Amino acid sequence: MANPKQPKKPHADAASRMTAGEATVGALIAHGIDTVYALPGVHNDHLFDALFKAQNFKAQGHALRTIHTRHEQGAAYMALGAALATGKPQVYTVVPGPGLLNSAAALLTAYGMNAPVLALIGQIAQSAIGRGLGHLHEIRDQAGIISRLVDYSARIRDPAEAAGLVAEAVRAMGTGRPGPAVLECAIDVWGRSAPATAIVPPSPVPPPPIDEDAIREAAKRLAAAKRPLIVVGGGAQGASAEVTELSRLLQAPVLAYRRGRCVLDGRDPFSVTLPLGRELWGEADVVLGVGTRLFYGFTHWGIDNELAVIRVDADPDEPERFARPAAGLIGDAKPILRRLIEALPAGKRPSRRAEMEERQAKVRARLDKLAPQIGFLEAIRAELPEDGIFVDEVTQIGFAARLLLPVYKPRTFLSPGYQDNLGWGYATALGAQHARPDVPALSISGDGGFLFTSNEIATAVRHRIPLTVVVFNDGAFGNVRRIQEEAYGNRLIASDLANPDFVRYAQSFGAEAERARNPQELRAALKRAFKRRDGPTLIEVPVGPMPSPWEFIHMPPVRGLR
Ligand SMILES: Cc1ncc(C[n+]2csc(CCOP(=O)(O)OP(=O)(O)O)c2C)c(N)n1
Ligand SMILES: [Mg+2]
Question: Which residues pair with 343 in a beta bridge?
Fold first, then answer.
C-alpha cells in the first residue's frame, strides 16, 4: 500500500508537457524578448503564471520581466517606445474587449510607424467565441477588429500551436514593411497543456535579392543629378552611416521631418528639416527617398516631369503608391544603399558646404519667430546628452522641436509620425527609457497631452524608471485655442483646461518634481533630473501662448503638377 506521507509521484510526462502560456513565454524568450509590458486580468491568468516562472528563467540566457502599467494604453505605448528606442520587437499583453480597445490607439500608432509591437490579447472561452452570450469582456468579432488594425494576426487554438505562432508573428513583424502583430488566445486555452515541443530559436529571414537593374538606373540618375536631394523617414534609422556617406558623395542635403530626424547628425549643415527642405525639393532634379512616404513632397509641394524620384523601401507596394518612381529598390535600406554607393562612379563633386551653411542661417533667421519655443529647446539640448532620447508630443515645443531641435544619433528623436496622436508621449517615453536605461530619456508634453497618460507616473515609480518629463502648462489645448482665436473670430470652445498643481500631483505619486519658470531654470532642473537614475522626475514649466509654427509646416506647392 502506498505511504500517504510520500509525495505523490508526478504524472509520468508532466515535465514534458507545457501549457499554451508556457510555450508562448518560452518562444518569446527564444526570440530574445526580455520584457512584457502588461495589464493582467482573469482571461490571461495562465499566461501571467507562466510569466511569473519566467522572471528567473535563465536557461536561454536571460529572464523575461513583466512590467505592469495602470492602463492598457500605457502597456501598449511602453512597448511602442521600447521598439522605437531599440529597433527590436517588443511585446505587450492585455485582456480582451475593453483591454484591447484601451490599447488600440497605441496599436494604431505602431502601425503608422511600422513598429514591431506584438500584442497578446485574451479571449473568452474558445467554444463561446462568436455566440454573443455576454461573457466577461466579450466583443463582437474581436479577430475581425484586430485584422483591420494590423497586417498579421492569429489565434492560438491549441498549446501545440503557440510557439510556432509566436515565431510566425515575430517573422511577420520584420518581413517587408515592419509593423505590429497580434495573437489572441482564449481563456481556457492558455492553461491547456500539450507535450512540449522543442522551441527552436528563429532562423534569420534571408533578405530579398537586390535588383541590380534598379541599382544601375538609380546610380546613373544620381551620378548625373545636378541638384540631388535625399529624403529620409523612419525606415532609414538603421542606415545612418550609408545615408551620411551618400550625402557626402553626392553633396546632397538630407531632409527629415519627424521619423527620419537624427539619421544624419543634426550638426551637419546638410541636415535639413521642413522649410529649407521644401526649397530644396523645388530645385531638385533627383530625389532619393529612403524609408519614407515622401508625404510632404508629394501631397504639399508637388511633383512634375523635371523631377526623377528614386525610392528605397521595405514595402514592395510603397514606391508606386503615389506616382511611379524612376527606380524602386525593395528591401532593407542599409544593404541597398551600400550597393548604391558601390555603383556610383568615383569622382568628387564641388562642395556645397558653404551654400548649405548660408541657407541654413537664412532659414534659421525666419524660424527665430518661434523664440519662446527655441529658448526652451536650447536649454534641453544643452543638458540632454548626445545619445539621450527626446520624445516628442503634439504640443508647441514638440512642433518646434521637429523643425529645429538638433539631434545627433539614430533613434534619439521619437515622434509619432502621421497619427500625431495627442497623449502618446509620456507612456511611450517610459517604454523608451525602460528599454534604454543606459541613456537619459526626456518626454515633453503640453498640459493637455500629459494628462492622457500621466497616471503612468505610478508605473515609473513602481518600476523605478528614471524618465524625466517636462510639462509645458499654458492652461489650454493651446494649439486648438490659437486656431479658434485666429481663424474663428476668437470663438473659444472646449479649449481651456482646469489643471492640477503638476508638481504636487507628481510628488503625490512619489516622483521628484519642481517648477521652472524660464529656460535658465529649466536647464538647472534638467541637470538635476538627469543625474537621478532611480525614479522619475516631473518639471512643470508655466508658459503663455506661443507663436504659431504652422506657416513652416503646411507650406504651399513649389513645383508644377500636383
Ligand atoms: C488623439 C488626439 N486627440 C486630439 C488631437 C487634437 N489636438 C491637437 S493639439 C491639441 C491640443 C494640445 O494641447 P497641449 O497638450 O496642452 O499642447 P499645447 O498646444 O497647449 O502646447 C489637440 C486637442 C490630437 N492631435 N490627437
Ligand atoms: Mg497646453
Answer: none
Q: Which three cell numbers stand for residue 284?
A: 531638385
- What is the average pLDDT across 137-147? 98
Rounded to the nearest 10 degrees, the angle between the axes of helix 478-487 and helix 396-404 is 90
Name the average pLDDT for the chain: 95
Are 541 and 472 within 8 A, CB to CB?
yes
Is residue 23 within 8 Å of residue 196, measured between CB atoms? yes
Identify whether the C-beta of residue 123 lies closer than 8 Å to the C-beta of residue 43. Answer: yes
- The two beta strands, 441-446 and 468-473, are parallel
Would you give the DSSP letter of residue 259?
A: T
Q: Per residue in 243-271, pLDDT tens? A: 999 999 999 999 999 999 999 999 999 99
- HSE-up of 453 (CA within 13 Å, CB side)? 32
Find the DSSP H helices in 300-368.
333-343, 353-367
381, 405 contact by CB (below 8 A): yes
Helix, strand or coil, per DSSP, at residue 542: strand
pLDDT of residue 201: 73
Q: What was the pLDDT predicted at 200?
A: 74
Neighbours of ion ligand 2 (CB under 5 A): 446-448, 474, 476, 478
Q: How far is CA 471 from the centre of its chain?
A: 20
Q: Other CB atoms closer than 10 Å to residue 13's CB: what's the count?
A: 10
pLDDT in tens, 385-407: 999 999 999 999 999 999 999 99
pLDDT at 10: 38
- State residue 59's pLDDT score: 55
Q: Cα-Cα-Cα-Cα dihedral of 24, 29, 35, 39, to 10°?
A: 10
Query: Which residue, 481, 499, 501, is CA-closest to 546?
Result: 481
* Residues 6 or more apart whose Cβ sits within 8 Å of residue 559: 281, 282, 301, 302, 303, 304, 306, 307
DSSP string, 39-68: ---GGGHHHHHHHHHHTT--TTSS--EEEE
Instruction: Indicate the top mutation candidate among 479, 482, 483 to test ligand 1's pocket, ranked by most ligand atoms within 8 A of CB.
Output: 479
Contact 393, 420 (CB under 8 A): no
**93 phi, psi to nearest 5 deg:** -140, 140
Handedness of CA 64, 65, 69, 73 (dihedral sign): negative
On the CB side of 390, CA atoms within 13 Å amount to: 31
The residue whose CA is least distant from atom 6 of ligand 1 is 422
Query: Of 294, 282, 276, 281, which Cα lies nearest the Cα of 235?
Result: 294
Residue in the structure block whose three cell numbers are 529649466 = 522
**8 CA distance to ligand 1 middle (Å):** 62
pLDDT at 7: 41
Ligand 1 atom 5, closest CA: 422
Which positions ≥6 away from 474 have C-beta within 8 Å?
A: 396, 446, 447, 542, 543, 544, 545, 546
> What is the value of pTM for the model shown?
0.96
Measuring from each residue's beta carbon to the nearest atom of ligand 1, which residues come in under 6 Å?
A: 394-396, 420-423, 446-449, 472, 474, 476-480
Band the pLDDT of 62: cuts 50, 70, 90.
confident
